[in-house]
Amino acid sequence: MTGKVLITAGAFCRLNNDGVACLESKGLTVQLPQGSGPMDEERLIAELEGCVAVVAGMEPYTERVFAARPELRVIARWGIGYDSVDVAAATRHGVMLVNTPGVVTEAVADMTLALMLGIARRLPYGDRSVRAGAWPMIFSGQVFGKVLGVVGLGQIGQAVIRRARGFSMRILGHDPYCEDGLCERLIIEQPTLEELLAESDFVSLHCTMCPDTRHLINRERLRLMKPTAYLINAGRGGLVDQAALAEALREGWIAGAAVDVLDPEPPDPDDPL
């Protein structure tokens, strides 16, 4: 294959110079986006001009994009999941899809623990207060010894569990699609989702985004959580009904939420969160 390869996944260039060199050694020309920030369809179509392949982030690959760029042959997702790609449309247009299982596992697990510690210890509030010239007395909670509910027991969920053991947490896991014997090997409890929500001090979401999991955490399920519990989402924004989460935070159904993902991204200016 010859031609241009667009790289929209910024981490690929920052962390993988050997990958860029490999592409170039095969006669491909590496192209970076002209602008910055998330892309919509219009900008993506413009950036893909003349490109036969893309090392992709989370920008939308839709029927309209494929129709506008028939020269595109390969989408390589830098990450896991295809929820930003219309797979049926890609198939119709003869575009091959691949992803990179495991490449972000440890990074996302690290982020999950950072979010848990940050919200439990109120680190963002303390940082903002001191920068504003205040010196508040901050009363915060602990992570050590608490109950962690992990929803989704794939590679990332398991990596989070490994880290949580260092905090002596009691770990609950829920995944209706996990392999037989996995929970026993991980030595974790496997309650129903409703039981997990009711018992956990932290609920961390790591399941795949699909029609069955869209708004998995909705108004009714947020109501099941403890008023002292925190919701952590480093998976996909669509796993959570954001309007319901905003209501839960306003009304005090839960103690707080720490999210690394939203739906859509970037959020609409009137998004309740």
Please characterize this protein's 3D structure.
- By secondary structure, this protein is α/β, with parallel strands linked by helices.
- 36% of the residues lie in helices and 16% in strands.
- It has helices at 10-15, 17-25, 41-47, 63-68, 87-92, 105-120, 123-131, 155-165, 182-186, 193-199, 219-224, 242-251, and strands spanning 3-7, 28-31, 51-56, 74-77, 96-98, 147-151, 170-174, 202-205, 230-233, 256-259.
- A five-stranded parallel β-sheet has the order 2-1-3-4-5. It has a five-stranded parallel β-sheet with strand order 7-6-8-9-10, with helices on both faces.
- Helix 6 (105-120) packs across helix 8 (155-165).
- The longest helix has 16 residues, at 105-120.
- The radius of gyration is 21 Å and the shape is globular.
- The mean pLDDT is 93.
Topology:
Layout: E1 3-7, H1 10-15, H2 17-25, E2 28-31, H3 41-47, E3 51-56, H4 63-68, E4 74-77, H5 87-92, E5 96-98, H6 105-120, H7 123-131, E6 147-151, H8 155-165, E7 170-174, H9 182-186, H10 193-199, E8 202-205, H11 219-224, E9 230-233, H12 242-251, E10 256-259
Parallel strand pairs: 1-2, 1-3, 3-4, 4-5, 6-7, 6-8, 8-9, 9-10
Helix pairs in contact: 6-8
